[in-house]
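Researcher: Next entry: Histidine kinase/HSP90-like ATPase domain-containing protein (Streptomyces longisporus).
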Amino acid sequence: MTFELDLLATPKAVPELRHHLRTHDFEVRLCVTELLTNVIDHLGEGTPVTIRVTGTSGGHTRIEVTDPDPRALPVLLSATGTAESGRGLALVDILARCWGVDQGRDRKTVWCELATPGR
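Model: Predicted structure:
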């Protein structure tokens, strides 16, 4: 099963996206919204994105968030206990079996793969 949605990255889009993915596991919804929030925080509100959630032949769930800026790459930070930001990609890193970035000439896709529950 594949879910795909084009939207503008805005704070309002985050709960709407969670609602669209309500049949998916909590970890899937968390990773998708963290990757979307990174676009809002680092590229700005209103950035067009494509969200994809697919099952893989290896029994994993793949999440992809594509945006139009191939230069703004995600960075895994080590947030301090009092920091108000910097934990989103760390959460993805902990929950995902792997993650990365595919760069194109005019876009990038940040992706992660999660183990499907029960496997």
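Model: Note for the record: The first helix runs from residue 13 to 20.
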